[in-house]
Design goal:
alpha+beta, 4-stranded parallel β-sheet, 18 helices, globular, 5peptide_repeat, WD-40 repeat protein
Length: 1107
């Protein structure tokens, strides 16, 4: 044969593994042009020999198996032949016997035998003869007529059944044979596969998923998991995946179609594995734009979301997919995909960010996390058994609690081993902040300790107190070394010079003392401030002392001379805190005027001003590298500022009350804070700077409500906006802007089509829920609109205002048709009765009034509250009205008679919100004391208290099915609470319903753990329980059954948090063994415990010790 290009004889065959661009048949010239190794071009004769040898090898390997299989089939066929022959003989005997019985029965019949025996009819009885006559006349009785017919019908049924069963049997065997024949045709040399073209664009790679059947992905995962296959790509590359093919072959789809789908999955996984998506951290800043663009393209795509979950699951099996699975989980979190109640057992995640992830009641047991940012993750109710989490990034490191009153001051030792704290409980605590353990407690002051500091050599602690004294303590022994007396009033602040020789103190007596630490005598008394001295600080070289006072000034003093060298003016209110930079060139100050200022030490001039806190700045601290300034405020927040640009880097929310003191660790890795909430918190401030900003309101949330179908959550805020959220995932759907002042109240219509809002801009607006567009603006009030409410039939809208009036509006005409006046102060709350006969209103005049909607007249006035009535709500049966007041009480009233039924006491501050559950059995109340109470509406007794908000709770609202409670707070967040779990917990004494359900990613299996039952698995489809394989499960069940703390382990939790500042949560989660360390090797188990996690291992040790 001649070469078509060079007209030379073909002498060689190319056997290279690549796909040849030209033909494999080559002449000598083709060989030169072909461009491959000569070893890959074989003479035709040798090629033939190589092929025959290979074929012989294959036969040698495969023939014994084929022969063995053939012999097995022959044996089975022979046995079946004997069985079928035996069955045939048995069938034949049975048929003959049946017909013999029929004939015998016929002979036994008196009618037939009478004629056959030739008997004389004259001898028959009259009745017998009558029957014979009727037969002759063809009118036999029915029983005689049906006699033979019944036998025939029964035999016909048996015949048809036999035929059907035989047909089914042969059809089934035929299909199985065809399957085998189809599988044999899967040989690669008999069927040409599509040419694989690698895709580089990630969005194009994901687009391929659209045509892939999810059931095949599920089947692949289940097979490789069961068979413990660790190489997915190798598994998919095998030509004979019998189990995989057999499960998808049917009458509509043959093997070739299934093969194409599997090949497409294989190609897709190849693209993923070779892509940077499987090599790099796509959550990093460098991939921000790509990540955002990708999310825009794939968000809401069910097939792609399913595939991303599949990638996450693959990390449990094949380490090749760990990075792409990690990036896939990051995308799922960023797209706000609902991941609650999922099974993430044994997943391996690395080099990514899961900031703000919602893993409520997920099973993460056996998971391995490495270099993962878990800041703001919600682990409430999760299982964390035998987890290995290392090199974690999280902004909050621990919460230290021992003080019984406010923490006023904290200070790190120079060697970074000790953290000291002073409190209003008169004590000083020394902490090992790495472990979170209290090392010792120093008691000696007779009153509150306002300030503490540690000497540079870490041997001595100094403290200043309300008892007017300064004391020195030995760090090792905890004993008091000395006491300095001199101030005539409380000592607010103390500071030791860097050489440890001098101690400065400031007091409410307006003066500053400089003390010689060795002689314990005063070196100088500095008088210049006209009001209390709140803060003193030495320059790094100890030559200058800065002091801040309530007289609004900062004074600079020459330490040696004891003279004032400068006076810094700028703050408009008292200076609460001063701090030198590490190079001594800059002073920072925080003030009652809410500002932070930077000053040049040499010139005394102001360099910068930082504004952001909404209340006074109590404490400031500069990092040792001078790049970051931290501040704590009465607004309960900690903020980090870039010293050079003046921009806020990060905000830490976690304290529920004022932050009084902050301090950087010597290595600038940790920021500690002390608060009025009695706690000390440790923060990784570097991680805080990297933290992503989440969706949420930027100011106080005034009201929340849930649509009737439960899909949407609405919230209104002091930031003038209204937002609609996906009630499952927290994804913001719509933002409604239009009001030019805070939005005080919102209400969704009964058909979920319209939202009404009332604002301090005096207007009422109606919005289209689907589009978020404003439909109409209603003007009628002259002051702030405090409350709006739709009638149940969506014909009327009511509004109340600071102008003391209530207006009723016709929804269709959008005109006002009634104006109720009677309240003598602003009307803060209104509510229609479910039967639309009555409108209730509560106001600043402490009264509740009931109005007849039809005639527009007041029906009843309810008196009893001693403070403003901020919220009212009708029960669904119209029998009861609930009210919440500034007098801190909740009251229940008979809606018909106006008589008070119950007064519910429990809240310690103003009650802003009350709300009945749809069935009327439970009342929720939210208060300025930051808590939510659930009350039994029938008895007036408290059921449970929900804690989580770090600001006052302004609004509460039940979902229509009563399973979820929404709350809005001045901490700028919206929370959803799993109320169903709480109700179940309270309704059953044995607590069986406190179990946690964990659903797998593919929802084929669920796991449950109940108080009185073993931990077990249940197949969702068959609803059959799978026996537990882990013996530890029985231990856990016993622990849960015995321990009362676990009876509410999965209840009272926030199932969804919507906030710009994510808060790490782990209430009710379970840990057993495992490791939890951040990238600094900081043990995070104490943090988990402080967040409400239950450590099963600790409990097991306690039980063993007791036994």
């Amino acid at each position: 044969m001649k070469c078509t290009i060079h007209n030379e004889n073909i002498a060689l065959i190319c056997i290279a593994s690549h796909i040849c661009k030209c033909q494999r048949k080559l002449c000598v010239e083709c060989q030169y042009e072909h461009g491959v190794d000569q070893k890959q071009t074989i003479p035709i004769k040798i090629f033939r020999e190589m092929f025959n040898n290979k074929l012989n090898e294959l036969k040698l390997e495969e023939m014994p198996e084929l022969i063995k299989q053939r012999m097995t089939f022959k044996s089975v066929l022979s046995q079946n032949e004997c069985i079928l022959k035996q069955i045939q003989e048995e069938f034949s005997k049975s048929i003959n016997l049946i017909f013999q019985m029929i004939e015998l029965e016929n002979k036994s019949s008196s009618y037939i035998s009478a004629i056959q025996d030739n008997e004389n009819p004259a001898e028959f009885s009259n009745s017998h003869l009558e029957n014979l006559v009727s037969m002759i006349n063809k009118t036999p009785q029915k029983d005689l007529y049906d006699w033979n017919i019944s036998w025939v019908m029964e035999l016909q049924k048996i015949l048809e059944k036999w035929e059907q069963e035989m047909n089914d049997f042969f059809n089934k065997q035929y299909k199985e044979t065809k399957k085998i024949q189809s599988l044999i045709r899967l040989e690669p040399f008999e069927e040409k596969s599509e040419v694989y073209i690698r895709k580089e664009d990630l969005s194009e790679i994901f687009t391929q998923i659209q045509d892939i059947d999810q059931s095949i992905l599920r089947e692949i995962y289940q097979i490789v998991k069961k068979e413990k296959i660790s190489n997915i790509q190798g598994f998919l590359a095998q030509p004979f995946n019998l189990k995989l093919y057999e499960s998808h072959i049917d009458e509509k789809e043959d093997v070739s179609d299934v093969k194409k789908k599997i090949q497409k999955i294989s190609n897709l996984l190849k693209d993923i594995v070779d892509h940077p998506f499987n090599k790099n951290d796509y959550s990093s800043e460098s991939y921000k734009e790509q990540r955002q663009n990708l999310i825009k393209l794939i968000a809401g795509n069910r097939e792609i979301i399913y595939f991303l979950k599949f990638l996450v699951q693959l990390t449990t099996i094949d380490e090749t997919f760990i990075q792409c699975g990690s990036n896939g989980l990051n995308l799922l979190v960023n797209m706000k995909v609902d991941l609650k109640n999922h099974c993430f057992k044994d997943i391996k995640i690395q080099n990514t960010s899961l900031i703000g992830a919602n893993f409520v009641r997920c099973d993460l047991s056996g998971s391995v996390f490495n270099n993962v940012d878990i800041s703001g993750v919600n682990l409430n109710g999760a299982q964390l058994l035998n987890c290995i989490w290392k090199n974690l990034k999280i902004n909050e490191l621990n919460k230290l609690e021992s003080h019984s009153k406010s923490v006023q001051s904290i200070f790190f030792s120079a060697d970074g081993t000790i953290l000291a704290s002073g409190s209003l409980d008169n004590s000083i605590c020394l902490w090992n902040f790495q472990t979170g353990q209290l090392s010792s407690k120093l008691v000696g002051h007779s009153n509150s300790v306002f300030s503490v500091c540690i000497s540079p050599d870490s041997t001595t602690i100094a403290s200043g107190s309300l008892d007017k004294s300064i004391r020195l303590w030995d760090v090792q022994t905890g004993k008091q070394k000395a006491i300095f007396n001199g101030h005539s009033k409380q000592v607010n602040t103390i500071c030791l010079s860097n050489d440890g020789t001098t101690l400065a103190s400031g007091s409410d007596d307006n003066c500053i003392y400089l003390w010689d630490v060795k002689t314990r005598q005063p070196k100088a008394k500095l008088n210049a401030h006209s009001q209390s001295v709140n803060s003193v600080c030495f320059s790094p070289d100890g030559t200058i002392l800065a002091s801040g006072s309530n007289d609004n000034f900062i004074h600079l003093w020459d330490v040696k001379a004891g003279l004032q060298i400068d006076k810094l003016e700028g703050h408009t209110e008292g200076v609460l805190s001063v701090c030198f930079s590490s190079d001594g060139t800059t002073i920072a100050s925080g003030s009652l005027d809410r500002s932070i200022r930077l000053w040049d030490v040499q010139t005394g001039k102001q360099k910068a001003i930082f504004n952001g806190h909404s209340k006074q700045v109590n404490t400031i601290c500069l990092s040792n590298d001078g790049t970051t300034l931290a501040s704590g405020s009465d607004d309960n927040s900690i903020r980090l500022w870039d010293v050079r640009t003046g921009q806020q880097k990060a905000k830490f929310d976690g304290h529920s009350q004022s932050v009084n003191s902050i301090c950087f660790s010597p290595d600038d890795t940790i920021l500690a804070s002390g608060s009025n909430d009695k706690s000390i918190r440790l923060w990784d401030f570097k991680i805080g700077q990297q933290k992503a900003k989440l969706d949420g309101h930027s100011k106080t949330v005034f009201q929340v409500c849930i649509s009737l179908d439960g899909k949407l959550l609405a919230s209104s805020s002091k930031d003038n906006s209204i937002r609609l959220w996906d009630a499952k995932t927290g994804l913001m759907k719509v933002k409604m802007d239009g009001h030019n002042d805070q939005v005080n109240s919102i209400c969704i219509s009964s058909d979920d089509s319209t939202l009404a809002s009332g604002s301090s801009d005096c207007s009422i607006r109606l919005w289209d829920v689907k589009t978020g567009k404003e439909k109409v603006k209603l003007n009628g009030h002259s002051k702030s609109v405090w409350s709006v409410c739709f009638s149940p039939d969506f014909t009327t809208l009511a509004s109340s205002s600071g102008d003391k009036s209530i207006c009723l509006w016709n929804i269709k005409t959008r005109k006002k048709f009634f104006r109720f006046e009677g309240h003598t102060d602003p009307v803060y709350s209104i509510c229609f009765s479910p039967d639309f006969s009555t409108l209730a209103s509560g106001g600043g005049d402490c009264s509740i009034r009931l109005w007849d909607v039809k005639i527009g007249q007041q029906k009843v006035k309810l008196n009893g509250h001693t403070g403003a009535v901020n919220s009212i709500f009708f029960s669904q049966d119209c029998s009861t009205l609930a009210s919440g007041s500034s007098d801190c009480s909740v009251r229940l009233w008979d809606a018909k008679t106006g008589i008070q039924k119950f007064k519910l006491n429990g809240h310690t501050d103003i009650v802003f919100s009350v709300c009945f559950s749809p069935d009327g059995t439970t009342l929720a109340s939210g208060s300025l004391d930051k808590s939510i109470y659930l009350w039994d509406a029938q008895t007036g007794k408290q059921k449970v208290k929900l804690d989580g908000h770090i600001g006052g709770v302004n609004s509460t609202f039940f979902s229509n099915d009563g399973t979820t409670l929404a709350s809005g707070s001045s901490d700028l967040s919206v929370r959803l609470w799993d109320v169903q779990a709480v109700q179940q917990k309270l309704s059953q004494v044995d607590f069986q319903s406190c179990g946690v359900n964990f659903f797998s990613l593919y929802e084929t299996t669920s796991a449950s753990c109940s108080i009185n039952d073993n931990i077990c698995l249940k197949d969702v489809d068959s609803e059959k329980y799978i026996e537990p394989k882990n013996s530890n499960q029985n231990i856990f069940s016993a622990l849960i059954q015995k321990n009362s703390c676990l009876k509410s382990v999965s209840t009272n939790i926030t199932s969804l948090l919507i906030s710009q500042q994510g808060i790490f949560q782990a209430q009710g989660s379970l840990i057993f063994k495992g490791e939890f360390f951040n990238y600094q090797n900081f043990d995070l188990r104490p943090l988990l415990k402080a967040k409400g996690t239950f450590c099963l291992e600790n409990y097991l040790k306690q039980q063993q010790q007791q036994n």
